[in-house]
Design a protein that fits this description.
Length: about 70
């Protein structure tokens, strides 16, 4: 499970996209109102490797963070 702190954007709409290291979209989701608590993303179905989480809050630029899945 991946926890992402988004409390600075609480209450705002966001689009989240998870992309693998070759650029293929693994998961997309829209959050209508971001929570104040950390957002949890279930990565148990992901294979081992490097991924990028792209978050776009209310039409702003993308914020990109990388993470690694190791099982």
């Amino acid at each position: 499970e991946l926890s992402v702190s988004v409390n600075a954007y609480a209450g705002q709409q966001a689009d989240l996209v998870v992309v693998n290291q070759v650029g293929a979209v693994v998961e997309m989701m829209r959050i209508e109102a971001l929570p104040e608590s950390p957002l949890s993303i279930n990565v148990s179905a992901y294979t081992n490797g490097l991924y990028f989480l792209r978050v776009q809050v209310a039409g702003s630029d993308f914020i990109t963070k990388k993470f690694v899945v190791r099982k």
